[in-house]
């Protein structure tokens, strides 16, 4: 058996399930027993990350550290967090723990560089977009952000998905098209784990970059070797 994967989940629940589905899809198996073992703490009660970052809301770190402790004690050896915004707190979350937490943003930035993209659009929560947490990994790439109005529309879509509602992909495509008209983009990072759940068709132009799938690929590689 390979290394055991742990998932700090619930941000939101649908995104957590999506990561698990990607892990299954990307695993190399000949039989059922070859899939990685995955331990999941799917806790939707984690305080809202954007509220904490921008508006002084409750700090999610204590809850996440408690969840991480539980996963490690249960045997998790590598950790994934299917939420882009929570990576704002990654250093605080992993402080004092020896377990490896895969940095989804760093892995996504590596994918952008591997594709030799020079200009990328970035979609996500206002917590992700206004703090520049992706930009620190993409210093050699031009990052194009949505307008304030488009950010508001994105937040509406993201929280609709978190409530279990279906959001037509056309609404997301409209924002991507507008951004691409303002500045020609090599690709667009779907920088909130709810957005790939809207963008079911990811064969569009510009190229859509899915951090959930990238995180899953890294977790599988580390687990299966």
UniProtKB/TrEMBL annotation:
Source superkingdom: Bacteria
Keywords: Isomerase
Pfam families named among the record's database cross-references: Asp_Glu_race
PROSITE patterns: ASP_GLU_RACEMASE_2
Entry annotated with the keyword Transferase: no
GO molecular function: amino-acid racemase activity
Stretches assigned to coiled coil: none
SUPFAM superfamilies reported for this sequence: Aspartate/glutamate racemase (SSF53681)
Family (UniProt): Belongs to the aspartate/glutamate racemases family.
PANTHER family per record: ASPARTATE-GLUTAMATE RACEMASE FAMILY, GLUTAMATE RACEMASE
Protein name: Aspartate racemase
Taxonomic source organism: Anoxybacter fermentans
